[in-house]
Amino acid sequence: xHHFDIVTIFPDMFPAVFNDSILKRGQEKKKIAIRIHDxxxxxxxxxxxxxxxxxxxxxxxxxxxxxxxxxxxxxxxGRRKARVIYTSPAGVPFDQKHAKRLTRHNNLIIICxxxxxxxxRVKLKCVDEEISIGDYxxxxxxxxxxxxxxxxxxxIPGVVGKEDSxxxxxxxxxxxxxxxxxxxxxxxxxxxxDVLLSGNHEAIKRWRREQAVAKTKKTRxxxxx
Length: 225
Ligand code: SAM
Known about the structure:
Layout: E1 2-8, H1 15-18, H2 21-28, E2 32-38, E3 52-53, E4 63-64, H3 66-77, E5 83-93, H4 96-102, E6 107-111, H5 120-125, E7 129-132, H6 142-153, E8 186-187, E9 190-191, H7 194-197, H8 201-219
Parallel strand pairs: 1-2, 1-6, 5-6, 5-7
Antiparallel strand pairs: 3-4, 8-9
Bound molecules: S-adenosylmethionine.
């Protein structure tokens, strides 16, 4: 079983995403376990439950401070070996290769930043890798954590029902996926390409590959270089 532990100050953001569809079934089938941890439970100030503080040296905004993050990570890890990820726009861009690599770790702990981010000492001592989900700045690490869990979990055997569907996806062999059609074969005069109705599996395979190459050339030529 693969475990995903998420540390956040907004635990209520997660149930809608994780308790539905494929991720819900993955948990029911005991292929994955997802736990959400409220960072405020690790506050040094149990009354106010505060977890943030002003940055030394001045500047706008607040930072999630080191003590509650250290405590949360230590408690969640226990004696298990776990890989700790910090979601950050300053991290390494996340892609399908990262998602595949992360399936090799049975225990992932994901830290969701907020405000201006987290105290650097957490990165130095607790974090194994910083991951960005793209070159833009979000209000917090919750949506990145959801994206990472979703992308990794669906690659774990048994989570997606039809595993064949993973084989011809975008980014396999550095190609994007080409077009798909379903019934009706003729919709408002827009006809499905003849080859897809031909029953000739070799020709269909060839056509799909040509389409994938054309799509990649058009929208992501960088993948082909
Ligand atoms: N001051 C930070 C900077 O310039 O790098 C941005 C902080 S952002 C407002 C708050 C939190 O959202 C970050 O600590 C991080 O956890 C998360 N975040 C925002 N954009 C992200 C992205 N593109 N990828 C991953 N995490 C992101």
